[in-house]
Automatic annotation (TrEMBL):
Residues 91-418, 522-749 form the Membrane transport protein MMPL domain. It is a multi-pass membrane protein. InterPro entries: MMPL_dom (IPR004869), Mycobact_MmpL (IPR050545). It comes from the Bacteria. Gene3D superfamilies: Multidrug efflux transporter AcrB transmembrane domain. This is MMPL family transporter. Its main location: membrane. It comes from Occultella gossypii. It is found in: Cell membrane. The keyword Transmembrane helix applies. Keywords: Cell membrane, Membrane, Transmembrane, Transmembrane helix. The chain crosses the membrane at residues 20-44, 201-220, 227-245, 251-271, 322-340, 352-374, 419-441, 567-585, 597-615, 635-657, 683-706, 726-743. Belongs to the resistance-nodulation-cell division (RND) (TC 2.A.6) family. MmpL subfamily.
Amino acid sequence: MCPVFDRLGRDIAHRPRLTVFIWILLVGGCLTLALTGVGGQGLFDRLHSGEPRVPGSQSQIGSDIVADNDETGETISLVVRGVDLADAEAVSAAGRAAATLHTTLLAIDGVESVVDPFVFPGGPAAEEAAAFVSTAQDGFFVSVTLEPDAPDAAHDEVVTELEEFPATASDGATGLVSSSPIITDEIIGQLQTDLARGEAVALPISLLIMIVVFGGFLTAGMPLAGALASIAGGLGALYGFSYVLDLDSVVVNVVTVLGLGLSIDYGLLIVSRFREEIHAAAAAEAELGSGERRQRGSRGRRGVDPVLVRALRRTMTTAGRTVTFSAVTVAVSIAGLLLLRPDILKSLGAAGVSVVIIAVASALTLVPALLVLVGRRMLRPSVLTRVPVLRSLIGKLGDVAPEHGFFSRLAGAVQKRPWVVLLLTTVVLGLLASPVLGLQLRNSTTEMLPRESDQRDFIDVVQADYPLLATPAIQVLVEADPAQAQAFADEIATLPDVEGVNPPTAVGTEYQLIGVRPDTDEAGGEVATGVVEEIRALQTGDGAPEQIWVLGQAANQIDFTDALIEGLPWAVGIVVLATFILLFLMTGSLLVPLKALLINILSLGASLGITTWIFQEGHLSGPLGFTSTGGLESYVVAIVIAFGFGLAMDYEVFLLARIKEFYDATGDNDLAVRKGLQQSGRIITSAALVIVVVFAGFATGELIAIKQAGVALALTVLVDATLVRMLLVPATMTLLGHWNWWAPKPLRRLHKRFAIQH
């Protein structure tokens, strides 16, 4: 018996109310910090969005140089539609309205300039005004620049005036206002909406599933209580991280989903084992004579029921140990992200590890305390059994798992033909993984927004109707004088797949910025990335500027991918080694950890393959409500690998813990596999079903990155809990037999000394 977990179980059993009270204080404090923060700035006010930063990369260095030399203030833009510029009377009316707008805007403290086609001599018909006139002659563009030190209120005042302007310019005219803060606010606002929608979908369905599994509201609510506490704690931890890391807007949703799913997983395991142990403890008590029960007393120290104490201590030394071990493996997997250069992956790694710690803390303290407070009521039939329709279902699912049942029969069937099951399952997983061979990565920015978003509409209108004002998909920063920069721009214009090149513009006193328009509508597609690579290759040519930095989505995407490839061997190597050591300390075997790693890689490949088929190739875009960007978000792939590997190991630990427990007791490998799957199969299936619901709930959101992550992680859990845990693992463990538990003598001695004991 593990003394640490035994002591923890004993202490919680004697102080359940204090434990719950401490959690109430923690949850309240974390929620207050996350929602209101310090000084009125909460977590969501401290998030940012945009291209993922890759410190030290060419695109990031160039972007920093441009930002450092930018002496202009914020720009706020308005696209006016529905004004016929071929109609002299309409032009005259719009011009008068624009003049009034100029006066109003320039009177606002912090406004530096206002530009539209009416400020030029000759108005919209002037050649100089062409950039501000719609190519369809049905609208015009207004640009307002703020002073660098403009007060915060200036932005909102300008936005209000611009929103009201179209109605004064022409009957039926409409407008779209945009700026960097507006785009960021819309992305973060959509994130908050998606978060609320995901929780609204996931939590009620999860509760319903657990009610059916456990046969009652009280028992089912405990993992959910732990999950809610973990969400609050996770948001509080993220608020703290926002002061030391740049948190991208997607971090909150991804980490919240992980915390919610793991908390329910761990809570289910603790509650299920406690139900098993309290039934056993109650049965043992019933066998005692009434005189002996009186002699022992119905209540132990401090009035605590000794049956509850024994049940909880046994639960913590078995399921508590398994949950802790699982959390360590998940945390190790996620911690691998800390070894990669991109800031978004570091923040996901740090925040993810903290949420895993909070999830396991709630499962090991809050959930057991609630179990003790409920006490022997868990032994009573649920009131739901009074409903005839539910009585049969709850009677079968709500009881403690029988010694023989569906999962033991399934394992027995697999053991009759293990080679057939192994080959068929491997072929299926391989076919599911095959789309990964054509995987394309994307680093989307505004493409993350839903198609019906006003800001997405604004960007599309500017690209189509105001090409001279649209930000080029590729920008080239050179350290050169204007003449040398122009010569280099002319050379870039000769490259294949380059549609046009904008004249160089000065950036500070030493640099020139060249806008490059590739012949494609996909800012991060193969054509754009090809142009970036060709421009970078020109840096070594004769007459090229000494320093060249290529910027934009495609360049950032290439640098992000290179950073992943550069850091992946170290990250994967350390995670694999740490996981291998942990599984060895748990099982004492060399083959079980190796097999687990290989199977999990195959499982992850299948999940990524299905996700690629869905999102890159655009299948199921209608039912899932998305428009394909031509690939998967690069950081989503990293998230799925890290988090998915951790979740797969989570279920591996759940299953192996019970198999090893029965193998140590019987020495019969095949029997241990059948009994282990029978005792853990229902919990693994229930936990997987709940976590699939959680991830699928968040996949109902509108942000494409969150949708991809939700679907991919749901698929990871679904594939792992069915094809892998139910079929592939029993087949391989049957084929290996007693070799499952083999290790050389020196390692057996090492395991005996340092093993993580039952």
